[in-house]
Amino acid sequence: MSVRHWITFLSKEQLSQEKRLSLRLILSIPFLVQIVVAVSLTGYFSWLNGQKTVRNIAQRLSQEVAKNIENQVSSYTEISSQFLLTTQAAYESGNLGFADQESLARYFWKQTQVSEAIPFIYFGSAEGDYIGVWSNPEDVNTLQLQTQSTAPYREIYRLDEQGQVAELLRREEYDPRMRPWYKAAEQAGKQTWSPIYVWATSPRLGIDHAIPIYEKSGLDDTDENSPDSLLGVLSVAVTLSDISVFLQQADVSYATRLFVVEKSGAIVASSAAEAPFINTEMGEQRLLATQSSDFLIRETSRTLHNQLGSFAEVVASQQHFWEIGEEDYFVQIVPFDEQIGLDWLILVVIPRSDFTTYIQANTYITVLLCLVALLITLSIGFTISQWIITLIARLSKASQAIAEQATSQDFGQGEQPIYMKSQSVRELEILARTFNYMAAQLKQSFAQIANVNAELEERVVTRTLELEAANRELKRSASIDGLTQISNRRHFDEFFQQTWRSLAREKLPVSLILCDVDYFKLYNDTYGHQAGDDCLKKVAQAIQTSVQRPSDLVARYGGEEFGVILPQTDLAGAVHVAEKIRAKIGDLKIPHAASAVSEFVTVSIGVGCAVPNPNSAFEILVESTDRVLYRAKAQGRDQIVRCADAGVRPKLG
């Protein structure tokens, strides 16, 4: 017999026999037992689900927050690394020189305006020269210069808003070669980070990202093992205060602490309102996490030392559930180990109470409802008891539903949380409002996390596009001679090799013209190097205008020597082009008082032609043409000599 039938039977018996047991007692006792058992089981499973939900949400939240911090820190280090590598590549390709301090200062100034993450750029040479540009929005922008004429002092100038020198501020003794950033890069032989230090001009932490710049010995530029000499060290000062600002603005909770430390335990940045350094009689010193004035940061660090030994023992991401100061906390530890030297730890400390406050409130209300339900059952009976059980069951289902929603990827991104309807019972109404408030807050927290992730992804995409554009421009610049603005030797070789292979398949001729400015060294000695540069520019322009076809290539072959590649051109056609070149240069009438052949600048020209063979290399034609060029110079200069004229023919095949 079911409980319902059994109670109905007892009710009928009471109506006929008033002297038997009270119906109220008969109804109350079985329902009391049922409600106690049902409510106990409901509360227990609700508590288990709540604990599971708390742990899952805490793990996901701490992992996502740590990942956001890691991405933010990476963005700072990647910006400085990309700048150093791009500048190094520009120097190695000949598009940037460190000797011209005026051009270098303009370049540094423009770079500091691109990103606030690079406020201070400086370069110290092996001879002791120094140049630095500091874009300081909190103070004055400065240019720092030191040359052989000012040594051992550097001069510090104020810059206006356009980066122009305004006035000399002061002179101070300085040697860049003795600075830690210079020595660190010189010793490492590659890009590296300096130890973190406190800036002397403003109360915040900074770190130097430096890279050594080498120049080739000149013995063999194609040999990677040829000895290089140190030209100097290029460095960027990166401020770490922006990381602290990011951590403080991270909307997790008031009681949550986010901080980044070195393996030594020194604080790099934190969400706490404290400076990452302390003032002592010895000066400003780094603040250790175990000595932080913030209780949670200090005690978390000490607990880590007790549990794991030290910060240096952490080599992989870890999650812990620690009791700190009589309260439970979820602790996420993520190593930030950059390949070029940074070895930091990211810690996210979230109190368990952030997730359990509402669940505990639900538990207390559930217990209260159980007591109320028991009293009502004793006085009113089955109907009210059943009603209470129904309401509690709805609460359990709603709690389970919100727990399942919290594990969904769409939660916080448009999907609405489940809300409890208004209840007629005051206690249940309080519970419903509390539950609804918890659901709304949880959705808001997930939405904020999603917005932060989307913003970070957008910044990464934007920065990636900027770097790709810069790389494309750098590749284009790598093929152009910086002085004459025509193709350089590298592009000449690549183009000739490609043309040689193509014409070898088609069995068509290719011609080569090599031009050398006569007595150019004497020209430089007589008129100066600036005039020599202007002369080379004019000669290059004259050669360029003498070549009409888009398929032809004019390049600076080396020094005062130029090369012209003429695909699908026989020897006669090449000689015709060479005559045009010689005539155009003669029309320039550039004075050359030191020349032994003319009062104006002249050129000696060698012309060669060959039908490429698939089994041969273009260097054979270059060698043959070079020999007739020197034959032209040996025969008196200011003339054109062909391979046939010189009795030399390229050996192909």
Task: Summarize it.
With 653 residues, the chain is of the alpha+beta class. The protein has 14 helices and 21 strands.
Write the layout of secondary structure elements.
Elements lengths: L2 H14 L6 H70 L8 H14 L5 E6 L4 E5 L6 E6 L6 E7 L5 E9 L6 H9 L3 E2 L3 E2 L6 E12 L11 E12 L1 H9 L7 E6 L4 E4 L6 E4 L2 E4 L8 H14 L9 E7 L2 E11 L5 E9 L1 H27 L2 H25 L19 H53 L10 H18 L3 E8 L2 H8 L1 H18 L6 E6 L2 E7 L3 H18 L14 E8 L8 H16 L5 E3 L11
Helix content bin: 40-55%
Given as residue ranges, the uncertain stretches (5+ residues, pLDDT < 50) are 2-8, 218-223, 646-653
* Global mean pLDDT: 81
Assigned CATH superfamily of the largest domain: Reverse transcriptase/Diguanylate cyclase domain
* Category by helix and strand content: alpha+beta
Please give the domain count: 4
- CATH second-level architecture of the largest domain: 2-Layer Sandwich
User: What is the CATH domain class of the largest domain?
Assistant: Alpha Beta
The span between the termini is 108 Å
Overall 3D form = elongated
What is the number of helices?
A: 14
Strand fraction band?
A: 15-25%
Question: Do you know the CATH topology of the largest domain?
Answer: Alpha-Beta Plaits
Beta-strand segment tally: 21
